[in-house]
Design brief:
By secondary structure, this protein is α/β, with parallel strands linked by helices. It has helices spanning 23-41, 65-71, 79-91, 174-182, 206-218, 271-280, 319-333, 340-356; strands at residues 4-11, 47-51, 94-96, 100-102, 112-119, 122-128, 156-158, 161-167, 187-191, 221-225, 244-246, 252-255, 263-270.
C-alpha cells in the first residue's frame, strides 16, 4: 500500500440494552454502517479502518456484577465478532469494535470491558480496559488478577501500520498510552463513552485536550470515537460526541460536530509521513528523549491490585471493595485523614470489618 489510507470514527446512538438478546440489533446496525461508509466514500478514498465507541454493544447498567453477568455478559469472541469478521473479509477493512461486557471462564469471578481489533483474517487482538472508570464501572482490570499472563496493551502489526487501542478513562493515564507507543504503535485508537462536562466544549474540553496531547507527546495518529447516545437513552449523563482524528503533531484532521447522535467522521492516516518524521526529527521527539530512570514514582503501587487472601473475595469487585482500595491508595499518597478523605478511611475500616466477619 502507499502508506495513505482513511480511518472512520463511527459514532453510535443506541439505547442501553437491558438483556444480551438486544445486542444483535446493534451489531447488525454497526455492520450496515461499515458497508455504508466504505461504499459511500469509495469515489474519494479508501476507508480501511473503522472504529466504534465504548458500550456500543452494552453498558454496565446494573450495579451488581452478578446481575451484569446474568443479563449482559458474553464470551469474546462471539457471534457478534463473527459478523464483523464476515464484513471485514468482504470489504478488506479493519474494525475496532465497540466494547463488550466480557465473561471469560478462565477468570470466572470477574467481568471485563473489552474491544477487539478484527481484520480480513479474523480477530487480531483483544484489549481489556486496564483502567476502569472508578468507582462507577464495576468491571475488573486485568492488571488486578495475579494469574493474568496475557499482554495488557497489545499492539498489532498490520498492513495499516502498528495498531494499538485503549478505552476511555485509560487515556487520562499518560503512562498507559506511552506504554502502547513504546510497544511500537503508530496509530492508537480511543474507544470512549466520554460524558459532559468533560467533553468538547469550554471551559474543560478534556476530550479534545487529551486526544491532542496524547498524540503529540507520543508522535502517533489518534483515532478517537466517542459515544453519541441521547441522554434519555443512556442516563444519567449526557454525551457530547465530537469523535475526531488527530495527527502526530496534535492537529485535528477531522471532527464530528459536537453533540449526540449517530455520526461518521473520516480522516487521513499518512503512515509514510509519520515514519519519515520519526526518523528525521531531533527536536520534540519525546519518545527518544525519555529519561526513564529519572521517574521513580512508578516503582511504588498506588491503587493496589485486588488481594483475595486479604479481602472478602465476594466483595473485591463491588463498590465497597473498590472504595476500600481507593482509601488505601490515598493513604499511601498522604491524602487520607482530612475532609472527605476521612470518609474514605471510614469506608475502608467498615469494609475491612465486614470482609473479616
Amino acid at each position: 500500500m502507499s502508506g495513505l489510507y482513511y480511518a472512520a470514527c463511527c459514532q453510535t446512538a443506541f439505547a442501553c440494552p437491558r438483556d444480551r438478546e438486544e445486542i444483535a440489533d446493534r451489531t447488525a446496525r454497526m455492520c450496515r454502517m461499515i458497508e455504508e461508509v466504505v461504499a459511500g466514500y469509495e469515489p474519494f478514498f479508501d476507508v480501511r479502518l473503522l472504529a466504534f465507541p465504548e458500550f456500543a454493544h452494552a453498558a454496565p447498567v446494573y450495579p451488581d456484577p452478578a446481575v451484569l453477568r446474568a443479563r449482559l455478559a458474553l464470551p469474546v469472541p462471539n457471534e457478534h465478532t463473527d459478523a464483523y469478521e464476515r464484513v471485514a473479509k468482504k470489504l478488506g477493512c479493519y474494525i475496532q469494535t465497540g466494547t463488550f461486557i466480557e465473561w471469560d471462564p478462565a477468570y470466572p469471578e470477574v467481568l471485563f470491558n473489552t474491544t477487539c481489533l478484527i481484520g480480513p483474517t479474523g480477530v487480531l487482538s483483544k484489549y481489556r480496559k486496564v483502567n476502569p472508570w472508578i468507582p462507577w464501572e464495576l468491571l475488573a482490570s486485568p492488571h488486578d488478577l495475579p494469574e493474568y499472563k496475557e499482554p495488557l496493551f497489545p499492539v498489532v502489526e498490520t498492513e495499516l501500520g502498528k495498531l494499538g487501542v485503549a478505552i476511555c478513562y485509560d487515556w487520562l493515564f499518560p503512562e498507559a498510552i506511552r506504554e502502547i507507543a513504546l510497544a511500537g504503535a503508530e496509530v492508537i485508537i480511543r474507544i470512549s463513552a466520554y460524558m459532559d462536562p468533560w467533553g468538547t466544549c469550554s471551559p474543560l474540553e478534556w476530550w479534545t485536550l487529551v486526544n491532542r496531547v496524547r498524540a503529540l507527546e507520543n508522535m502517533v495518529f489518534v483515532v478517537a470515537v466517542n459515544q453519541g447516545a441521547n441522554r434519555q437513552d443512556y442516563p444519567p449523563f449526557s454525551w457530547p460526541g465530537g469523535s475526531m482524528l488527530v495527527d502526530y503533531d496534535g492537529r485535528i484532521l477531522a471532527q464530528a460536530e459536537p453533540g449526540p447522535g449517530e455520526k461518521v467522521v473520516v480522516g487521513p492516516i499518512a503512515l509514510e509521513t509519520l515514519r519519515a518524521e520519526r526518523t528525521r526529527r531531533f527536536g520534540h521527539d519525546m519518545l527518544s528523549h525519555l529519561r526513564s530512570e529519572a521517574y521513580t514514582y512508578l516503582r511504588q503501587p498506588r491503587f493496589p491490585p485486588a488481594n483475595k487472601e486479604a479481602e472478602d473475595p465476594a466483595g473485591i469487585w463491588t463498590d465497597k471493595g473498590v472504595r476500600l482500595r481507593i482509601a488505601r491508595g490515598k493513604k499511601k499518597l498522604g491524602f487520607a485523614g482530612q475532609g472527605r478523605e476521612t470518609c474514605h478511611e471510614e469506608t475502608a475500616s467498615r469494609v475491612t470489618e465486614e470482609g473479616s466477619a
